[in-house]
Amino acid sequence: MPATGQSHIRIARPSRDLASAEDFWVGGLGLSVLFRSESAGQPDKHDLLMVGWPDASWHLELVHDATVEPRPTEEDLLVVYLDEQVPQTLISRLEAHGGKRVQARNPYWDTWGTSIEDPDGYRLVLSTRNWTNS
């Protein structure tokens, strides 16, 4: 079957600390834990956390592997289009759960949203725009 607009997307990233990542993405943004696996010290296994909204066609896979260090840049963005102003309560909750508000490298995102760095240094952009006018 070819890839289509209905194909599910998994965004996979390394994480230094899955507990901190879970606190940010679940406690802060409000995603759900979709799957969790612990390696229990088994060789060639990794601790894994998948988070997302259960009805979404994407999810975020966070993997802890002691040999792989996250290397995010200022342009590694996960953008969520809110189609409304970014609630200050959401920004505060993300900060309380390990996020750090940052200035975007591209001023477009400061004009049309708010950038928050997760505990691993990756950036979440909460955009005031909707997908169709972005």
Automatic annotation (TrEMBL):
PROSITE patterns: VOC
Gene3D superfamilies recorded: 2,3-Dihydroxybiphenyl 1,2-Dioxygenase, domain 1
Alphabetical list of CDD domains matching this protein: VOC (cd06587)
InterPro entries referenced in this protein's UniProt entry, alphabetically: Glyas_Bleomycin-R_OHBP_Dase, VOC_core, YycE-like_C, YycE-like_N
Sequence ranges assigned to domain VOC in this UniProt record: 5-129
Protein known as: Glyoxalase
